[in-house]
Amino acid sequence: MYFDYAAATPVDKKVLTAMSPYFSDQFYNPSSAYSPARQVRADYQAAKHRIAQVIGAKPAEIIITSGATESINLALAQCHSGLDPESGVITTAIEHPAVLETARQNGARILPVDSKGRVDPENLEKYITDDIKIVSIGYANNELGVVQNLKAVAEICRQKRLERVESGVAMPLVLHTDASQAAGLLDINVARLGVDLMTLSSGKCYGPKGVGLLYVRAGVVLDPLFNGGGQEAGLRSGTENVAGVMGFATALEMAEKKRKNEVRRLEGLQRNLEKYIISDIKNAELHSISKQKLPNIINFSVEGLDAERAVFALDQRGVQVSTGSACAANKGTRSHVLTAIGLSPAAADGSLRISLGRGTTKKEIEEFKPILKEIIDHEQKLS
Amino acid sequence: MSGGVDSSLSAALLVEAGYDVTGVYMKNWSRDLPGMKCPWAEDLADAKRVAVQLGIPFQVFDFESEYKHLVVDYMIGEYQRGRTPNPDVMCNQEVKFGIFLRASLDDGADMIATGHYAQIVRKTGSSSGCSGPVSKSSPENFSEDRKHCSGVPLLRSTRTALSGSPVFLVRGKDENKDQTYFLYRVTESALERTLFPIGHLTKPEVRAEAEKRGLVTAGRRDSQGICFVGNVGIREFLSQYVETAPGDILEQETGRKLGRHDGAIFYTFGQRHNLGVGGGLPYYVVGKDMEKNEVYVSANLNNDEFWREELVLSDPHWINQPPRVGHKYQVRLRHRAPLIDCTVGGEVVKLENPERAIAPGQSAVIYDGEVVLGGGIVT
What ipTM is given for this predicted complex? Predict the structure, then answer.
């Protein structure tokens, strides 16, 4: 029983089919001059066109990368204004380490969140001084599932930009969002969201791992991380990952097509499981709110539980879930996200994240419930 | 529980024997070194996985500062004095059977257990579930007495074991894995509180038993012991802590300069040295002067420096009683090295035949048959 779709999703069969010719028959380098290679190039560009359509962008605004981490690095690497170590980028305390670590190296100001992980847009407004170049706010949080009001954030950025123009401040202001968890679950249309940069990950939406993209609104200037042959409009050199992009395009289209029904279905399963956790698991406390959350993530704490023990015990029963944060568990440190929303160390250590996906069924949820309860009850005694 | 198969199976055997077991991971070292990521977090997770599998509580004892102080600083200091220390011996004496034992007892434990390949034989009364009555003066009879003995004494004998009767440290069944060479400095009172649940098994048996129980660590590679010396090597490790300077390599017999070295601290007595002199005989390190930063080598394997008929032990430690004068014992000069006949008088070990010498700072461990008497550090 797999309940860790926020960590990785299986590649859809249709996605795999779309990819497979480009490993062997259509192996050509898209930059080569002969006709089979030019066909591959055309296919690649068509795939990027399809991706652009899904997110409401122009194909030239899509920069393909090796995944979300690279996209984030590309987006944030240039944002340091060079004036003050705390100038350059504003981000939130609950971002993925890819954002936080990159931001810290480039002069970060960290925006606090409330006890549910929400950013207060009015508070953000006060943080945006004239030395800020980038605002980077995750669309949906991978641990808590909380969804930020990006439209409100975009509106604040737009106002600030106007103020800067009026007062003659030359510093640009760019809004980046890490939307890795959002594809297939939320509206990822860049025009409607009002963002300038957006990171997406193929591996989180039933596409292959090792592929991602950075949407770069026309007019936003970035410096490349890699030097080389000048692919991806000079922003990302290296021979194109054709098979990966074919898969990514198919995966994104499918995710968008299924989105409305899948969200409704997942919301039902999520509600069902949340109700069970609250009513049947002693001392369980949910960390999600009723609105403004992803339909597939359930994060809860059981005070006194050693969540890592529960993960190992569930694993030994063939059930895969995550502690509050997989990365944090590997490093033996507490999740910065759970700390940021004000959880006590005991509550953070007793936090489990269950994330649902396309393969999750009602039947599976029903089978999971008693196992979850049994193991939490048992491990709570030993923790 | 280190996350390796030996301590995993040890815990499983204790649980099966009915003990009330708590798994403990000792966090002694977590620092990454150039080119080597310290695997402590994965080791800890594996140890915890097994604890969960066995349904036992699990704790982490953080001894990083103690370990640095008692083992690492000692090791670096010895190297700086031109000697070749054995950090495993010090780790057992000071950390595992010192502070870990004390912390466990303070926490309410009756005994500690480790996955060492070594055995403990307790001279118990007639109610012993393990060995028959043995005479303290004749531990030679142990092999007979131990025939029906597993590594885990029956629970009811635990109390008897703590009655103050002598406790003997005995070689592990697996001749290849026997770790008593590293355990000779453990005190008798610590051994009284210790169980070695797998000492009666061989390594292949341990793996098979772990597999039989489906332990998640059954197929795991052997742990490195001291993780920081593991893959990096002592040279790279010392380079992190000690400033070194190049110096001369001199032929011991003639004083002739044969080449340069990058720090005398990196050279160990007996080490074969490739001087880059083509066609010649291999040279071996026979000594060094840390003050002058000089390394002395010789190509003559009959050089007196290489051979010893007598060893002088500094800081000797005897687990039960000091050796008897005139009695024939055996000495082991390296982990897994063959046992050599000897006699012991005070701090002097007389070898029956001249033996290849070992580096100052290494240990000589005295055995009476299967029983470890103790030993000392070679001067």
Answer: 0.84
